[in-house]
């Protein structure tokens, strides 16, 4: 377990899997076409962190899958700043053409960046995204948002994130989506977690959340193996 005062390198970080460990967790993954859809969290942007590789979390997951399937195809359509509605409007057709069998979805962070969020609209837009993802036939995945940053202009921002995460968990459960939980993960306490913009995870955060995602996907694979043996 990490504490807020600890500073690691990637080689010593207990919350970061090595590429070999990540590939081991995903060793029987059936996915050959990995698509990533959404906003900056899906894009994996962030500042460098001394002692850590600069790759964002999607590239790290791609690299783990490529160790298993050298012929893996990968597409990331994510764009910084987009809402769920805009992502569907601008990215959906390209992702449909790609035909992923593993599809990561946006978490809706930009949907709550309004003075007065329209929660009915937010849920409707997110539901449309999950329904589309389910219709592709791909295994979908999503992150819950962490609690590491605040937006001073919105004093209730932490409550907004918690409510958005509740919607994410509900819709993910309805659609069989793998949820990688970041809300209360110890990574939120890292003093070097955030980039200079105080919003996006720096490389240390990208490294940790890639491992959170790999573990979540690994749990789904364990469940699938269990179902096959029943």
- Major beta-sheet overview: 5 strands, parallel
Total of domains = 1
What proportion of the residues is helical, as a percent range?
40-55%
Q: Would you count the extended β strands for me?
A: 5
Uncertain spans, ≥5 residues at pLDDT below 50?
Answer: none
Describe what you observe in this structure.
The protein is α/β, with parallel strands linked by helices. The chain has one domain (19-222): 3-Layer(aba) Sandwich (Rossmann fold). It has 7 helices and 5 strands; from the N terminus they run H-E-H-H-E-H-E-H-E-H-E-H. The protein has helices at 19-25, 40-43, 57-68, 84-98, 119-136, 157-175, 203-229; strands at 33-36, 73-76, 102-104, 139-143, 178-180. A 5-stranded parallel sheet has the order 2-1-3-4-5, with helices on both faces. The chain starts with 18 loop residues before the first helix and ends with a helix. The model has no long low-confidence stretch (mean pLDDT 95).
Brief summary of the model shown:
With 230 residues, this protein is of the alpha/beta class.
Any key phrases for this structure?
230 residues; alpha/beta; Rossmann fold; five-stranded parallel beta sheet; 5 strands
Topology (SSEs and partners):
Blueprint lengths: L18 H7 L7 E4 L3 H4 L13 H12 L4 E4 L7 H15 L3 E3 L14 H18 L2 E5 L13 H19 L2 E3 L22 H27 L1
Parallel strand pairs: 1-2, 1-3, 3-4, 4-5
Helix pairs in contact: 1-3, 3-7, 4-5, 5-6
């Amino acid at each position: 377990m990490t504490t807020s005062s600890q500073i690691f390198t990637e080689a010593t970080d207990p919350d970061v899997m090595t590429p070999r460990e990540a590939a081991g967790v995903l060793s029987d993954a059936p996915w050959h076409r990995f698509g990533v859809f959404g906003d900056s969290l899906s894009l994996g942007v962030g500042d460098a962190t001394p002692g850590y590789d600069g790759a964002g979390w999607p590239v790290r997951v791609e690299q783990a899958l490529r160790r298993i399937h050298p012929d893996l195809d990968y597409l990331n359509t994510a764009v910084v700043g987009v809402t769920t509605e805009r992502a569907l409007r601008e990215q959906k057709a390209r992702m449909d053409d790609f035909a992923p069998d593993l599809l990561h979805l946006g978490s809706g962070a930009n949907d709550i960046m309004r003075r007065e969020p329209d929660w009915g609209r937010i849920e409707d837009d997110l539901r449309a995204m999950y329904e589309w993802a389910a219709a592709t036939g791909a295994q979908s995945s999503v992150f819950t948002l962490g609690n590491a940053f605040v937006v001073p202009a919105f004093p209730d921002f932490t409550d907004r994130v918690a409510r958005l995460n509740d919607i994410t968990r509900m819709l993910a459960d309805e659609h069989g989506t793998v949820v990688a939980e970041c809300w209360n993960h110890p990574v939120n306490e890292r003093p070097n977690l955030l980039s200079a913009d105080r919003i996006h995870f720096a490389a240390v955060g990208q490294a940790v959340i890639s491992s959170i995602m790999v573990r979540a996907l690994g749990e789904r694979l364990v469940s699938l193996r269990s179902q096959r043996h029943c």
